[in-house]
Amino acid sequence: MKVIGLTGGIASGKSTVSALLKEYGFAVVDADVASRTAVAKGTDGLKEVEKVFGEEAVINGEMNRPYVGQLIFNDIEKREALNRIIHPRVRDIMEYEKQQALKSGRHVIMDIPLLFENHLEYTVDEVWVVYVDEESQLERLMKRNNLSYDAAAARIHSQLSIEEKKKRAHIIIDNSGNLSELEQQVKKVVEQFFERNQKK
Ligand SMILES: CC(C)(COP(=O)(O)OP(=O)(O)OC[C@H]1O[C@@H](n2cnc3c(N)ncnc32)[C@H](O)[C@@H]1O)[C@@H](O)C(=O)NCCC(=O)NCCS
Ligand SMILES: Nc1ncnc2c1ncn2[C@@H]1O[C@H](COP(=O)(O)OP(=O)(O)OP(=O)(O)O)[C@@H](O)[C@H]1O
């Protein structure tokens, strides 16, 4: 069974691609989901967040995501402080989920937005990058998260550029076009993947 790292810039379309890959039978382990579990209600992770970022960082027993987001995407030190709390926990959760998925005999997609930033490319067999041109990325992010131009740009610039991620990919899925173009590309990538892996 293979482990594939799926990455790309913020709002490039990783979740959209993951949903398509599930239909082809891949198991998907999602870092954004794991990062919510890491600071869910009542966890030590959430207590740490409150200790470091103050009581405004928690609302109704849950992490105040808009507040924390606004703090960390504009300040690298705060971002690193949050990463130090959440990332080790995310890694443990994802490792467990990966092992469970492998036991079920399925190829696994590890959907990790910060795969290159956190040097995790060596933990997977191959890396697929969901690419989108920078203009569409900004537009889709502003629309999806209801963000201003500046807030969306800050989120994009908190990551390695999408052009650099594209250069480091084994496989590129270009999501600059419409959804039906994306579906066709994913189909092709999956067919080629199964061809490569049956030959071995
Ligand atoms: C800052 C937080 C509270 C904002 O929450 P929000 O609901 O608005 O966004 P969400 O979690 O859905 O993340 C959306 C995207 O933002 C990007 N992003 C999130 N955190 C980071 C980060 N620390 N550095 C760079 N990009 C990030 C990723 O591309 C992610 O897919 C949240 O993203 C968070 O807890 N981040 C720290 C954990 C993390 O690094 N997650 C990314 C994958 S492990
Ligand atoms: N080809 C497309 N055309 C138009 N909109 C798209 C296309 N692909 C995805 N989108 C939309 O763009 C937004 C970002 O896509 P998606 O949520 O899949 O990205 P993501 O990489 O998982 O984002 P993040 O890592 O930030 O959570 C979503 O609102 C999605 O519906």
UniProtKB/TrEMBL annotation:
Its EC number is 2.7.1.24. It catalyses: 3'-dephospho-CoA + ATP = ADP + CoA + H(+). It is found in: Cytoplasm. Keywords: ATP-binding, Coenzyme A biosynthesis, Cytoplasm, Kinase, Nucleotide-binding, Transferase. Pathway: Cofactor biosynthesis; coenzyme A biosynthesis; CoA from (R)-pantothenate: step 5/5. One of its GO terms (biological process) is coenzyme A biosynthetic process. ATP binds at residues 11-16. One of its GO terms (molecular function) is ATP binding. It is an enzyme of class 2 (transferase). It comes from the Bacteria. GO terms for cellular component: cytoplasm. Signal peptide: none annotated. Catalyzes the phosphorylation of the 3'-hydroxyl group of dephosphocoenzyme A to form coenzyme A. Belongs to the CoaE family. This is Dephospho-CoA kinase.
